[in-house]
Every structure is written in structure tokens, then in C-alpha cells.
Fold this protein.
Amino acid sequence: MRDIAATVARGVTFDRFEGVEQDELGVWRSPGGARVAWFKDPDANTLSLTQF
């Protein structure tokens, strides 16, 4: 997947964390510019997706 926004369009809901500044989709932008989002797999494990 090339684009985090396209992942949301496919129905993935990103987790939100208190104290982490995330955009309207739930994506955090790292100081280096990478976009990071967290989500749960079907077994409730937290995974992340990073777009550089």
C-alpha cells in the first residue's frame, strides 16, 4: 500500500492515542516527516503502517 489515506478508504480504522497529535484520519507525523498510523489486526494486536 503506497498511501495511508488509501488504507483508510479500504475500511481500516486507525487507533487514536491520548497525548499523540494525530490528524483527522488518526495519522501522526514524525519529526522526520514520516506518517505513522496504528491499527488492530483481527486478533487485536496493534500494528503500525508507516509512509516515508
